[in-house]
Structures are given as C-alpha cells and as structure tokens.
Design brief:
heterodimer; A: 311 residues; 0% strand; B: 336 residues; two-stranded antiparallel sheet; 12 helices
Amino acid sequence: MSIATNTLPGPRVRSIGSERYRRRALLFSAIMHQACIGFAVVIVLLLALVTGYLLYLGCASISANLFLEDVIPKGMPGYPGGLRHGIVGTLTLIVMASSVGIPMGMLTGIYLSEYSSGSVLAAPVRFICDVLAGVPSIVVGILGYELLVRPMGNQNAYAGALALAFIMIPIVARTTEEMLRLVPKSYREASIALGASKAWTILRVVIPAATGSVVTGVMLAIARVAGETAPLLFTAGISQYLRGVHGPSPYIHLQELQEPFPSLTVQAYIFATGPLKEQKYLAWAGILVLVLLIFILNLAVRLTLRNRHKV
Amino acid sequence: MSTDAANSFPSPSTVSTLTPQVPSALGSRRVFWGDMILASLARLGAATILLMLVALLAVLLRASLPSIRTFGARFVTDSTWRPNELTHNKRDAQGKLVRDEDGQNVVEIDPPRFGALPVIYGTVLSSVLSLFFAVPLSIGTALFLVRIAPRVSLHLMAVVSFLVEFLAAIPSIAYGIWGVFVLVPLLGMNMLCGGLILGIMILPIITSISRDVLKAVPRVQIEGTQALGATWWQSSVQMLRYSRAGLFGAIMLGLARASGETMAVAMVIGNVPQIKASLLFPAQTMSSLLANEFAEANTPLHVAALSEVALILLMMSLLFNVVARYLVVGKQVQTA
C-alpha cells in the first residue's frame, strides 16, 4: 500500500508493489486469458451448432425432387414436392437486381475513386453509401412496395428486384471504390503519359488491374441479397409455383414477372412458420441449399483475395 | 487509407499539350468524348446514391403522413397497438349494461388504435439484450484473435476469423429457422429468445470490427505496459481503453444491425405488441411488426401507421449508423 495515493497528479495508481497484489493480478490475468479463449470457443461452437443442425436436418430432407418439383399441396401425390420455383425465382430476382445494381454500384465506385477529387460531393456520397448499407432491409421492402407495387396494383418481380438492387448498390459501390484505390497511382500516370484519355485509362488500365477484387465485391453483394427475405415479403410477395416451369418452356414467362413471384427465402419462411411438418423439412433443405451457395461464394472470395495478397 | 493516392490525377490536357498552363479556352485541348460519357455516367451513379436516400425518406414520410396527421406525437406514447376495431357492450357509470328500448344491449365500437410504444420498447429492449450477450463474447474473441491466436499460429487466427465472418454471411432466415427448431422448444417464444438470437447474429460484426480496431493499437502502447510489469490482462485493458472509441463504434454498429434485423426475430419473439417487464413474455419489435402486418394491412390508416413505424425504424438505424461510422472512422484517422 506504499505507492497508492491520490495526491500524485495523473491517474490514480494502485498498489502494484505488494506481492499479494501481484499474485492476485496474475491470477486474474490468467483467468481472463482463459476466458477469452473460452469466448472464441463459444463462438466457433455456436457456428458449429447452427450449421451442424442445418446440415443434419437439411441433408435428411434434401432430394432430387427439391430441384425438380414445385410445391405440391397436402393430399396430392408427390406431397410435399420441392422448391424448384423458389430456386428459379431467387436466381431470376438476383439476375434482375444485378443487371441494375452492379452497373450503378460500379459507376458510383468509379466516381468515388477516380472522379471525386476536389468535389464537395465526395464525402457525402461515400458517407451515404455506408449509411445506406446499414438501412434495415425491411424498410427497403416498404420503399419497393410504395414505388412499384402500389402503382401496379399487385406484387411483382420488378418490385422485388428493385428492393434487392437498392441493397446491392451501396455494397458494390464501396467495394469497387476500395479495390480501385488499391491500384497504384503509377499505372494511371503511365497510361496518361502514353496519351490515353482518362476514360480509356479507367476502363482499360485501372479496372482490368482490379478485376479480381471487384468481382469478389460483386459476389459478396450477390451473397448478401441471395439470403434476403424481409425486402421480398411485400414486393415480390408469395407464390407457390411458376407457370413457365410447368409450361412448354423451362423458363419463366415474362408475364409472370408482373405477378407475385416466388423466392427461396420467402417460401422457406412460409413453410417454416406453417403447421405442416413435411413442409418444415422442405424449408430446411431449401435453406441448406442457400447457405451452401453463400458459403461457396464466400470461400471463392476469400481464396481470390488471398491469392491477390500473395502477388 | 490512401485518400489522396488516386485523387491527384494528371488531367489528359496537361499531358497532351506541351504547355499545361495554356487554358483550354485557347483551343489547344482535345475533346475526349469517352471521357465526357464516362464522367457523366459516374456522376449519374453518385447522384443515384443521393437520390436513393432522398427517395427512401420522402416515400416513407409521404406514406406515413395520414398517420402523423391523425395521431401526432401520441403515436410514440400510446401503448396500444390494435389494428382491428373492437366492439363491446356499453356500460353506464355504475357498470350496468345499457339497453335500448327493445331491451337489446347497446354496442359500442372502439376504433383501431395505433400506438408504437410497445414495438419501440420491444426493439430497444431486444437490441440491448442482444448487446448484453454479444459484447463480452465479441470483445473477448477479438482479444483472442489479436493477442492469443497469432502466438499459437497464424492459421488459427485465419480460420477463426473466417468462421466468425461466415457467421455473418448466414442469412437471417436460417437463424430464424434454427431458432424455431432449437431455441423455441427450450425457451418458448419470448423476448429472451429474440434477444438471444439477435445476440448471436450481431456477434460477427462486433467481433470483426473490434478485431480491426484492436489491431490498430500501436505496438509501443502494449510494449510500454508490459515493460512496466503489467500482466496480460492489465495490458489488454490498456488496449481496450486506448481503442475505446472504435470499440464503442463497433458496438453501435451491432446495435444498428440488431435494431433493424427482421426475419429471425419475427420467427422467435412471439409477435405480441405488449410491454412487459419480464423477458419471458412474447413481445414485438418494429421490424417484426412490419413483417407480420404490412402485407395484410388493408385500411389506409393501418398502412400509414406501419409506414410511420418504418420511418421511426429508419431514423433510429440512421442515427446508430452515423454515430458508429463517425466513431470508427474517427479512430482510424487518429491512429493512422
């Protein structure tokens, strides 16, 4: 207790001199050290618990029918059917959303990285990108509803795709910006020195140099929207089948895009919260497919980035 | 990091003409159509971002106007959310049933009432509860990733980091279904269950940001404490203190995520808009209320009230995000 005093200036000093204090501090430190290891183990265990359960139940109910059948109502032969409509629907929505979201996001990213110097808009745009990426997705769903469902009179695929694109744009913009910034300035200077225009430099020098990483950003954005449910609930809505799948062509009738449109996640939500046991298992299998897809996308991203860092 | 690296772009005109000082008005500058097109497209993209935020706010505000006009400030203080009208027999001051001339009971109709207090309460409590679970686990794991794992092996750090980040990539609906199958049978559908699943869902974001923030602590700080004889935990506490703004930002981002999370909560929280002190009662959050009622809302006032809930939710999440970005970015600038 010799050093402890409040008369010294600065922060209060504890009595670190005493042997007893030292021993207690070491013990406490060892306990906290173990606790931190324990926390990490808990997080890994939680992941194992979630994915393990998913794999366990999903694998039990996965079958070829999952990919080949639409929903078959109870009492009909083939019940409970599969989720082909949901898988095709989700893929369609992703393609529609990407066709708007990726170009718009990349253009914004190019603006932020290459054109924004000296502009008063640069900081606000960057900030709004970050803030928009954090907007609750269900709110985006309401925006889609007000903009496209209410005027058109019913739920439709365009509204769903719009909501997903809204979520994609800020993610793609920020990753594109960050990846383009990693391209050394000397590349740009060399290109300009050779007489290339700025547009040519960006399109033929800067972007090719960053293609790998930009693609990973895009894949992350796709992985993110593939799992979205909330923004689709009131926009694309709920549908138990796709006519095109049953019709003469295996593809979707364009007409169907103007009607309530199925998606894997919404269908899984309906089934999981519904009363029928077989459909609950179907929901598990659908979610397993989705998580595997997202896992593969993430793994691909990680491997690409790792190879990049090696170079 | 390199905010200035890419920005000082030599303009083509300064290179293609031998005298860069000559103003372009003299006609020595070539016009690059491609430049103009790409530049305007890029500006269009940036304008879209601004437009998106404006559209989001404007559309929600317009949609919720009827509700704002009808309820005013009462909307956030009224603790009854009842979208349907209620009929009950009229009673007089003595509590006796009032009858009309034919001897029939006089029926009174209570109009629908929309008070957002229960769902605001639900969102706040479930988010705070989730922080209660997630913050110690996340920051402990972040310390593990920064101070313990690298000493064992870099692979261990990479693998645990990947697992934590993969936890973030699992979609909300998967957590929801897991909750329905695993947590609900154990705990029932209630606030506790909702807070727990939210806690699991925000673990990755808090962990990964805290890890980055802790990594940015200068080595000198740690070595200094160790040279003074600090134990492992004492120097860790100094690290946490040093980066407290960034850690607070990470927690705020977790809070923002938790308050906006929808599907998983909607599936386990029980969806009853009520205010109960106990965690073991079903509750309702703003986002789960929207998920449950928006598609079925058929009166204009109901839709408007739900839109106002969405507006409040949006404002809340914007606030959390702005504060968090400010803290995290501010810290990084300070350490750089």
